[in-house]
Design brief:
- The chain is built from five helices and two strands; from the N terminus they run E-H-H-E-H-H-H.
- With 113 residues, the protein is mainly alpha-helical.
- The termini are far apart.
Length: 113
C-alpha cells in the first residue's frame, strides 16, 4: 500500500510557495507516493529537501544508502567541470568578496544607530 503525501504535510514541513503551488497544480490536495509518480516529477520537486523534512532518521539513512552509488557517479562525472568553474570564477569571487567587505566597512562606519 502506498502512503499519501498531502499538501498540508508540505505546508507543515515548510515547503516553499512555488513547490506548494506546483504540488497543488499537479496533484490537488494529495498524491499516492509511488516510484513511478516520483520519477515523473524528479526534475520538478526537490527530493533531497523532501527526504530531510519528511522522512524519519532511519528512512533517511536507508534512502541515503540507496542513492550512494548514483551520487558517487554524479560527483565523479561533474568533478572536472566544478574544478574548471572554480578556477574560472576564483578571481571574480575574490573581487566580489573584497567589494562586500569594503561596502560593509563603509556602511558600518556611516551607520548612526
Amino acid at each position: 500500500m502506498n502512503r499519501k503525501l498531502t499538501l498540508q504535510q508540505l505546508v507543515n514541513a515548510g515547503a516553499c510557495p512555488s513547490a506548494l503551488d506546483e504540488f497543488r497544480r499537479r496533484f490537488g490536495a494529495e498524491v499516492a507516493v509511488t516510484a513511478r509518480t516520483a520519477v515523473a516529477v524528479a526534475g520538478v520537486f526537490d527530493f533531497d529537501w523532501a527526504a530531510y523534512c519528511l522522512l524519519s532518521a532511519p528512512a533517511r539513512a536507508a534512502r541515503d544508502k540507496a542513492i550512494a552509488l548514483a551520487r558517487a557517479a554524479y560527483d565523479k562525472a561533474t568533478a572536472t567541470a566544478w574544478a574548471a568553474y572554480d578556477k574560472a570564477t576564483a578571481t571574480a569571487w575574490a573581487a566580489y568578496n573584497k567589494a562586500i567587505a569594503r561596502a560593509f566597512a563603509h556602511a558600518y562606519n556611516e551607520d548612526k544607530p
